[in-house]
Amino acid sequence: MSEKEDPIKIHREGTTLSDLGKYEEAIEKFLEASQLYKKYGNVFDASYTLFKAAECSFLVEDYETAAERFLESAELAFSKGFDRFAVSALEYARDCYKKLDNEEKVEELEKKIKEVKDKLAKSF
Question: What is the CATH number of domain 3-122?
C-alpha cells in the first residue's frame, strides 16, 4: 500500500485539519479516507470518517450535505451491525434537518431513532 493509499495517515491528516478549524480541507481528507477504508473492507472506519466529514460540513453550515453524509454513515454502520453508532449519525442528521426547518424529515428520523433504540433496549 502506497502512502497515498494509507487511510490511517489520511484520516489523521483530516483530524489535524479539523482540529485547526480547516473544515473544508478536513472534509476532503475524511472523504478520501472513508473511500479507502471501504475499499479495504474496514466498514466501521469508513462510516466513522464519513461521520467526521459530515461533522465538518455541519460546522461550515452546509446542513444539506451534512445530513446526507450522516445518513450515509448510518447506513454503512447499520450494514455491519454497528447500530449504536448508527443511531448517533441519525441523531446528527435529524439536527441538520432541524436547522433546515424540514419537519417531515425530522419526524421521519425521530421515528427511526426510536425504533432502533427500542430494538437495542430489548437486546439487553
Answer: 1.25.40.10
Tell me how far apart the alpha carbons of residues 8 and 1 are, in angstroms, rounded to a whole number.
12
**Using a CB cutoff of 8 Å and minimum separation of 24, what contacts does 20-23 make?**
23/56, 23/57, 23/59, 23/60
Nearest residue to 33 (alpha-carbon basis) of 54, 9, 60: 9
> What span, in angstroms and rounded, lies between the C-alpha atoms of 33 and 13?
10
CA distance 26 to 10: 10
- Grid cell 436547522 in the structure block, residue: 99
| Cα angle value 99/62/69 (rounded, 5°) | 95
Checking phi first, is residue 118 left (phi over 0); if not, alpha (psi -120 to 50) or beta?
A: alpha
Tens digits of per-residue pLDDT, 38-71?
999 999 999 999 999 999 999 999 999 999 999 9
Q: Give the mean pLDDT of 72-87.
A: 96
pLDDT band (50, 70, 90) for residue 87 = very high
